[in-house]
Amino acid sequence: MSTTASAQALPGVPAPAAPAGTTHAERDGAQARYLVQFVPGADVAAQARELRSRGIGVGRTFSAAVRAAVVTATPGQAAALERKAGVAAVEVDAPVGISGTQYSAPWGLDRIDQRALPLSGTYSTPTTGAGVSAYVIDTGVLGSHTDFGTRVAPGWSAVPDGPGAGDCNGHGTHVAGTVAGATYGVAKAATIVPVRVLDCAGSGYTSDVVAGLDWVAAHHPAGAAAVANLSLGGGTSTTVDAALQGVINDGVTAVVAAGNSAVDACGASPARVPAALTIAASDRTDAQAYFSNYGTCVDLYAPGVAITSASHSSTTGSASLSGTSMAAPHAAGAAAVLLSQNPALTPAQVSASLTGGSTPGVITGATAGTPNRLLYAAPGTAAPDAAAPTVTGRTPGTNALSVAGSGNVTATFSEAVQGAGTSTFVLKDAGGAVLPAAVTYNSTTRTAVLDPASPLAADRRYTATLLGGPSAIRDAAGNPLATTGWSFTTGPAPTVTGRTPAINAVGVSRSANVASTFSEPVQGAGTTTFRLTNTATGAAVSAAVARNGTTNQWILNPGATLAANTRYTVTLTGGTTGIRDLAGNPSAGSSWTFTTGSY
């Protein structure tokens, strides 16, 4: 993935480039740098030792935000690694780049503290972000800039080129100024923690971003209020996505730029991470910025055109830049303001509060499918939603008997939820095997429906399970459903208990009816499912089919006298649309023959 320091555009890289310093021969043939992501819980050190034993070079390893390693390997070795036990993904280590009341406030700050235009010329929020750490994952930060005072922590750098966590590009300082600068910032008292993952040219590698995220996860104090801003992005990377999710799981609210290529943000990492706040850009007329990415992965719009903020040119410098790189830190600052009011908020609760408290419907030119929500920096101070969703209804019911094998399994929740799908709503047979099924969720009825790919077997016990958790079924505030399950038993299939004429009967009267008696009341018996044919020719005999009173017997009455001394076949068709019991359990279907006499 790739971005640019100007923040005017974040172009994608069409093909992975070789690491700096590699030769043409290395690019075209033997080796490249890869990121290997291991499965959760993997022993990274042991995996690294095994890779080295295979002759694969291992560089940096990660175990806090994500379990992964940087390796140097041939394409063949990389392909083999994808099939190795314990490996979740292998990808090229691709290049990346940068993607109180205040009077005479910068227009971006002025816009996010009011619901409608025109601008008032002022900016105010309930708090200033004090007590909240803002990790700026970027090109570093000029810590001596007067707009930051003494609020810049030492930070860390993934780039070993000399400046440490300082900024020799300018992008990170500008972003930090919008997050927490005294003049240009949303959260004017938040602590800035520079995490440098891009070099002086504003470029680096996917592994540098992963390294920065891993450092954040390892050094973020448990329970401490924190936000992370990533004004970078580009092509998709499962390892970057997993690392960012690891940071979010650690309790850090993540805000990312949607990207500046005027394309769907769902095609970019980390913009596509569902648990992150993905920010598109708007201009001072509340129009979608011409360069902004869009789509369903966007959560909010924020000011991103001609944004003035701190510059690395001097300790008092300022600069005006445009891009979703400038929009994202407005939201990161707003998240810090919210956390300073209530430090116990989870990342999901912060996201829910900012999206729920945003200003709806004011963005003009918003691309279809993009949520039309403009950031509002003071969405409210109400107590967070701490109530977990529960299951209020289920079909079949708990321990239900004689359940139709052709039916669906449903669960209704106490409130709207997210995360209901094939991995979180499963149906297992008595042996514990998961049955293939489709799962849909209706937010209006709050009901999830599991539709098995094939009918359930008769007279069998099944167990439905709903998996709750921070990344499983949860409400909009992130409160997880308690994992729950229930069992039911399908009904026995109806069987044929009597036949007239009997199987292989001979000398049957040519004017006789044909009868079939079932083990229980059935539905679906008719002229297409209870049939009589000439065995030799296959010709169907025209007949009427009706139930014998209130009994479980069905009668087939031929429309004409049967031929003499002729063999006939009776066919009963079962299945979900054939003969089945009243609960829908299908009969297996059967057939038999008899032979008429002379009369």
Describe the structure.
The protein is an alpha+beta fold and 599 residues long. The chain has four domains: 28-95, Peptidase S8 propeptide/proteinase inhibitor I9 (Alpha-Beta Plaits, 2-Layer Sandwich); 97-374, 3-Layer(aba) Sandwich (Rossmann fold); 391-490, Immunoglobulin-like, CATH 2.60.40.1220; 496-596, Immunoglobulin-like (Sandwich). The strands form twelve sheets. It has a seven-stranded parallel β-sheet with strand order 9-10-8-12-13-14-15, sandwiched between helices. The protein has a four-stranded antiparallel β-sheet with strand order 2-3-1-4, sandwiched between helices. Strands 20-22-26-25 form a four-stranded antiparallel β-sheet, with no helix packed on it. Helix 5 (171-180) runs parallel beside helix 8 and helix 6 packs parallel to helix 7. It is elongated, with a radius of gyration of 33 Å. The active site is at residues 138, 171, 325. This is Serine protease.
Tell me the Rg in angstroms: 33 Å
- Physical arrangement of strands within the biggest beta sheet: 9-10-8-12-13-14-15
- Which fold name fills CATH's third level, the topology of the largest domain? Rossmann fold
Q: Structural class of the helices, strands and pairings?
A: alpha+beta
- The name of the CATH superfamily of the largest domain reads Peptidase S8/S53 domain
**Total DSSP helices:** 9
The amount of beta strand, in percent, is: 25-35%
Shape: elongated
What average pLDDT do the residues reach?
A: 91
CATH architecture of the largest domain: 3-Layer(aba) Sandwich
Number of strands: 39
Q: How many structural domains are formed by the residues?
A: 4
Major sheet characteristics: 7 strands, parallel
The low-confidence parts are: 1-29
